[in-house]
Amino acid sequence: MIQSADYLYKLTHLGYTRSCREGSYGMLRTIAEINEKIRRGQTVVVTKEWIGRGEFLLTEPVAALPGVEAGIEFKPLRERPIE
Fold it and tell me: What's the mean per-residue pLDDT of the chain?
């Protein structure tokens, strides 16, 4: 059975014209997974900053929740015993 590591390719780094080496499909998958983890980590940091500043909204607010000045009286919820 042929494994993904058996497929060899010539790899050229796009940032460097003289950087060329041989690699396998398995190695490419590993590099892609590492890059994806780095990207996800950056996304988490940026999203956390947006949430902290109050700029991250899944949707625009439909309506503001009423405050104390609205005079709404809430009734406490009575708990029933579990039978």
Answer: 77
